[in-house]
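#dry-run=false #mode=assembly
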Amino acid sequence: MTGAGLLPRDADGAVTALFRAHYGSLVRLAVLLVDDDGSAEDLVQDAFARLHRRWARLRDEDAAYGYLRAAVVNGSHSRLRRLRTARRYVAPHDSAAPSPEGDAIVREEHAAVRAAMRGLPTRQREVLVLRYWGSLSEAEIADTLGISRGAVKSHASRGLAAVTRSLEGTR
Amino acid sequence: MNPEDRLRSAMEERAGAARTSPDALDGVFTRVARHRRNVRIAAAAGSAMSIAAVVLVANAAIGGRGGADVVPASPTPTVAASSAAGTPTPTASASPTASPEPTDSVTAIAVALPDRRLVLMDGATGTVLRTIATLRSGEHPVELSPTHRWVVVAPESGCTLTLVEVATGDRTTLRGQRVARFSPRDARLAYAGCADSAREGTPVVVRDMRTGTERTLASPRRPANWPQTTQFMDELTGVEAVSWRDDDVLVVSRAYEDYTDTLTLDVRTADDLGDSRRYEGAAVHFTYGGRYYGVHACCYPDWDQRAQLVEWTLRESGSTKRTVMAAPDALASGGVDGSGALVYVDNGDLWRWSGWNTDEGPPVRVARGFLGNVAT
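#status=ok
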């Protein structure tokens, strides 16, 4: 599933293999959740350290990846709480680098979408990230977040509606 | 472009711009090492029970795993704490004279020694008073009941607590984790039970020590305004410590991500008494004189990594907080013995401080190079 192959039995070896297979994608997930590159790496490393502690109980690659993904999502909660104050003073991340004029409209569009995402309640944003970036099914999102499938639908619907309203307001 | 595609496009661009550090894997293993150190500190504190001078000291290796953690007492105790440590220990190495009956000394503490013996020790002198049993494995946290009638041996890992009657060595196995504590006068034992699945919260079990009956308290309610618990219930809502107030109210500290919530429960009704609150990085490990005490040693790079014994007043008293002692190195925990002295291990040595809450007189080092899990 992940490219990590047959995992070593020992925690050090398994975590190292999983790290090489998934670290980058988990950091990208975390970036979308906390919108801060440094914090994203911190919480993903925290997630791997947690996995190391629990490896004796997991010992399964699929379960391990699910654990890591959920740990990143959960870790983003507390990270966001601590970032909240700083966010009042720090300009939101804008990854758009200088590029040809033809990209200007796209960059502006992306910035508007990200601004709309930042305005969402945490749970709605998580659901949208897992659904539209992570391409997870409703069941997988429900399992990752520890909520019902009905709640996933509700958060997705409300989140998408809020983003749409926000984007329409910027036109 | 529809809203879904606009979302995907914007997220792909943002995620694609993320860069990772080349030494990120080192960061993972640095966290692993830091956690191991903190677990040694916090786990020892959490199981120190009736007063909690519990300290988990490295190298207290006690054999293999599996089965009960306690075997019949060894007829020939061999290695004293000090010699196992390989450092001078003028008092702890005193001859292991076993008395026929458990002591009622107010300075008695229970100690799991590196040579696998579970002993009663005079916490003022380091003299071994009695060998209670021989432990089978692990760095076992122990808990001594206030009247010294019982000792609980916690597992290094897994789900088997062993209740030992000091006078007879009789053992009872309980399905519980390493967190346990006796109520005043040995009336009850509260311990963290084992959840049947990872999605359940850790139950708190209260055992009536007179009748042996047990009651499992429902997972305490979480205040609605706190963040929602999702997965890893054993970590997010795991019971990190239990302690008793003098009025028989049970204080339960639950680990919850990067902070701890503390609930006060009426054990007869399981009602939350409404003094619930959050402490970042610390659980309540014992109460004394109407105040809560816990060890603060937590886990994030930007937090103070030193262990501290901290004190809170009860909410109705103003909810103040002060540091009792900020250990320069590795204060594991502290607990109050029957004489009112704080017994603790700091930087590997066994200390006793009679004036700990009055600032009268300095701490006294009972033994150097002390190795053992201690319960006052």
